Amino acid sequence: MGNVQILLRQHVGAPCQAIVKAGDAVEKGTLIATPTGLGANIFSSVYGVVEEVTDDRIIIKPDEEQKEEFVPIKEGTKLEMVKEAGIVGMGGAGFPTGIKLNINLAETPMGEMDPEINPELPEGFKLEHSYILINAAECEPGLEHNIQQLEEQTDKVIRGVKYCMEITHADKAIFAIKKKHHKAIKILDAALKSEPDISMHMMADIYPMGEERAVVRECLGVNLTTTQLPSAARSVVVNLETVAKVAEAIDERKPCITKNVTVRGKLVGGNEAHVFMDVPVGVSVGELIEKAGGIDGEYGEIIMGGAFTGKSTELDAPITKTTGGILVTMEFPDLHGAKTGLLVCACGGSEERMREIASKMNANVISVCRCKQAIENKPGAPLKCLRPGNCPGQVKNNMQFKKDGCEYIIIGNCSDCSNTVMASGPKMGLKVFHQTDHVMRTIGHPLYRTLKISKEVSQDIDF
């Protein structure tokens, strides 16, 4: 194992403050950084010696021999232990879980539902129950670590769900899972026979079913505005891996020091997913790629995260508490300076990421449009989709691209958005690339173009 680099910012909020110095010996579970504001505790993931502390990271040289034992967190109430363990949203968002769970859902009133985006709801609609919604959608295409954990550690996951229910006083829980995961559904269904307050909701295999407000919409039938939290629907959404970490913190007094990661792409041996469980936080991207077989020849880029929302990275970059995927892609096509438009969507890459991809394709960007549902709640804030995964059309943007003289467009849209682009773009002579194309082609996944499956999914479980 090479040096472990533990970043001081692995969550929403401010960077943590290091409380160790060069030369200090550390163990698995040694507290090495604490929040300076909104944030979460950070622990050493290995036994070793601190080599250097910089402005943004703590670099540790691991001992040759690594023991399984870890320094346990302090005992306390269940919520206190979740906070102490430094758990954050493991699905990528990174919001401190101890803060998210610090709510009494039993006493939380239903928020006001916007009738424009909820025309089917009767006036004065109220939810009878309060909910923990478990995001088991494995939203990003090609990743498999959430579903593998659900299949292999079902009991731990359910314990974590019940702890989350207890902490928040929720009386119901729902697993939001894609209907295609037949094996996981069968295992979970058997495990829930004795859990009358926990159920499953089947979802279509389209992106972005795991977006927080999409989970609320799919499970509870209400559309939240771009500024409303799930608490407005008397619910808290928690990633599947996160609820497992909650169980570890409470049952084992284990700090959040490892991450489950899918490594996939242009690798020696093929493009199948390699799932690595309990990887020490701070291990390098390159080390995991080598563990998966190594890169097969020339490649386009390495992405940390998912194909839609991940960012390009380097071999020496460290994984964090929120790293879900490492994707090695095929080489980019060359557009030879062709005039190109970018269609930026709230559900995909930012404009900066889209411009990076365009540059790697040697495209000449002459026009930029936003998806008509992409909302900027305040200047400079990340875009939010008005109705995640449910798009009414993109004709106006396509017309603008055509007017601006674009030959190609690069889009970063969800499944439904991409479908609406394809309804008019090619008819106008616009050649379409999706920002995920180089990933999808590498892993053998269908390209995001015309939506070939229904967005409606029967809730009946059919084995």
Query: What is the domain total for the residues?
Result: 4
Measured distance between first and last alpha carbons = 43 Å
CATH-defined fold name of the largest domain: Rossmann fold
- Strand pairing plus helix content: what structural class? alpha/beta
Domain RnfC Barrel sandwich hybrid: 4-57
Keywords: 4Fe-4S, Electron transport, Iron, Iron-sulfur, Metal-binding, Repeat, Transport
Pfam family, one: RnfC_N
Domain NADH-ubiquinone oxidoreductase 51kDa subunit FMN-binding: 82-247
Characterise this structure:
The chain has 463 residues and is of the alpha/beta class. It has 4 domains: 4-62, Beta Barrel (OB fold (Dihydrolipoamide Acetyltransferase, E2P)), CATH 2.40.50; 78-113 and 128-252, Rossmann fold; 258-328, Roll (Ubiquitin-like (UB roll)), CATH 3.10.20.600; 339-443, 3-Layer(aba) Sandwich (Rossmann fold), CATH 3.40.50.11060. The chain has 12 helices and 22 strands. The strands form 6 sheets. Strands 13-12-16-14-15 form a 5-stranded mixed sheet, with helices on both faces. The protein has a 4-stranded antiparallel sheet with strand order 1-7-6-3, with no helix packed on it. The chain has a 4-stranded parallel sheet with strand order 10-9-8-11, sandwiched between helices. A hairpin with a 6-residue loop joins strand 14 (302-304) and strand 15 (311-313). Helix 1 (78-84) packs across helix 7 and helix 3 runs parallel beside helix 5 (182-191). The relative contact order is 0.12.
